[in-house]
Amino acid sequence: MTNRPVSIEQGGARHADLADVDFAREGPEIMNVQEAADFLRVSPITVRAMLAEQRMPGKRIGKEWRLSRTALIQWLSEPGERKNYPKRRPVGI
Question: Which of 17, 36, 38, 65 has the smallest set of CB atoms within 10 Å of its CB?
């Protein structure tokens, strides 16, 4: 990802606004494991593990994985995996 300079003007005219940056459109549409890990802000090991367990959208081409930025954004917007954590008992009981 490239960092784009954002100007900040004094006097309340205009401040840097994240809405001005389209994060979903930056970078390549088809990513390798490292690029996907950078995009998701996780380690490449996590990406490979999730791909191997079919918990993340991606295609294996030969020995390499390829991931679609659009598919990852859609996947991120879907409901997450349900966690079945044990219920905690109140302290002192």
Answer: 17
